[in-house]
């Protein structure tokens, strides 16, 4: 597979984007990257007809995938001549999924974000503050620092006294880091790397020696893998769009499950115009597209891409995949009113 077949839209210090970049690097899948600003607007993404504002966004051929949970599943399913990182045993796959739910849905990232030093230049930037106000919308305010410290300490303690307690190198006792390690390490690695975020008297290698040693091993494993694979090629927005629209679809077109409760309730059928967006953060921006596939795990819709210098000019469609979990679908009447 050529590097251009996989493109990661991200910015370098996004902890979510690291999840996907780590997977690509550790598995040895070549990819290109299209670097994005940390705040809106993102014209490179808009070229694909996508309003969704979260980073990262992953394209494989002419299929575009939203949300890191779905992106990692799709990368794990890729048929390439490289060993997968996921577990084979059902009980170990359950651990992977439970770690994903804990770290992504269980509030860990929100607690970690509450611990970022308030004097960080980015957090004091008015443009960044305005952007994140739109992103979080009416969501509850961040936890007080003492509450966030307690909750983050409970996560460090859980790993220290259970999965890493027997001195193993990796979460599932594998010879190398696997998907379970990626699912568990990303918010802790991010937070441990921010100076001043965690007080040294209650965190650090003395308090959680196994967790911090595991984080260091993971960093070293990624460094070695990057040395073998080399750094990804960086492409601009126009080139990324050209590569995507010039590619074939990565997946065959699916079907719409006519018995799905959401399909039944909204009276949806294949080809209908729908809006799709997250239910929590970044919910103010929703994509509009034609429904081409829907099952228990994902919704797939086609968006109209921008092309040429003319304002409003449209190009070939791309297929956008969003997970069902954490996303909401709405039908759109012919007059444009959302159902």
From TrEMBL:
Report the GO molecular function annotations: transferase activity
List each copy of the GST N-terminal domain by range: 8-69
Which top-level group of life is the source organism from? Eukaryota
Q: Which Gene3D superfamilies match?
A: 1.20.1050.10, 3.40.30.110
Pfam annotation, one family: DUF7962
* DUF7962 domain span: 112-226
Alphabetized, the UniProt keywords read: Transferase
What InterPro entries does UniProt report for this protein, alphabetically?
DUF7962, Glutathione-S-Trfase_C_sf, Glutathione_S-Trfase_N, Thioredoxin-like_sf
What is the official name of this protein in its record?
Glutathione S-transferase, protein
Which organism does this record belong to? Metarhizium album (strain ARSEF 1941)
Taxonomy of the source species:
Eukaryota, Fungi, Dikarya, Ascomycota, Pezizomycotina
């Amino acid at each position: 597979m050529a590097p251009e077949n996989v493109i990661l839209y991200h910015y370098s210090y996004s902890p979510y984007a690291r999840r996907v970049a780590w997977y690509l690097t550790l598995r040895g899948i070549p990819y290109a990257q299209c670097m994005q600003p940390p705040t809106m607007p993102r014209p490179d993404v808009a070229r694909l007809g996508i309003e969704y504002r979260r980073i990262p966004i992953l394209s494989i051929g002419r299929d575009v995938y939203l949300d890191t949970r779905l992106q990692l599943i799709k990368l794990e399913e890729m048929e390439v001549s490289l060993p997968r990182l996921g577990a084979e045993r059902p009980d170990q796959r359950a651990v992977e999924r439970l770690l994903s739910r804990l770290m992504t849905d269980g509030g860990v990232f929100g607690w970690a974000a509450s611990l970022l030093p308030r004097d960080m230049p980015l957090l004091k930037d008015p443009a960044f503050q305005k952007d994140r106000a739109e992103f979080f919308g009416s969501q509850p305010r961040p936890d007080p620092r003492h509450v966030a410290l307690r909750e983050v300490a409970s996560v460090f303690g859980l790993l220290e006294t259970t999965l890493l307690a027997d001195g193993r190198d990796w979460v599932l006792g594998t010879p190398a880091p696997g998907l379970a390690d990626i699912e568990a390490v990303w918010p802790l690695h991010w937070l441990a790397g921010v100076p001043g975020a965690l007080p040294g008297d209650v965190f650090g290698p003395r308090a959680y020696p196994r967790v911090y040693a595991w984080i260091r091993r993971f960093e070293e494993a990624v460094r070695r893998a990057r040395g073998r694979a080399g750094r990804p090629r960086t492409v601009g927005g126009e080139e990324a769009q050209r590569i995507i629209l010039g590619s074939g679809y990565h997946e065959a077109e699916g079907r719409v499950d006519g018995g799905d409760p959401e399909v039944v309730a909204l009276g949806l059928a294949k080809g209908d115009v729908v809006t799709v967006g997250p239910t929590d953060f970044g919910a103010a921006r929703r994509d509009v597209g034609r429904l081409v596939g829907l099952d228990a795990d994902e919704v797939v819709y086609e968006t109209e891409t921008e092309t040429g210098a003319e304002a409003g000019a449209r190009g070939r469609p791309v297929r956008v995949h969003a997970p069902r979990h954490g996303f909401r679908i709405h039908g759109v009447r012919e007059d444009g009113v959302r159902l």
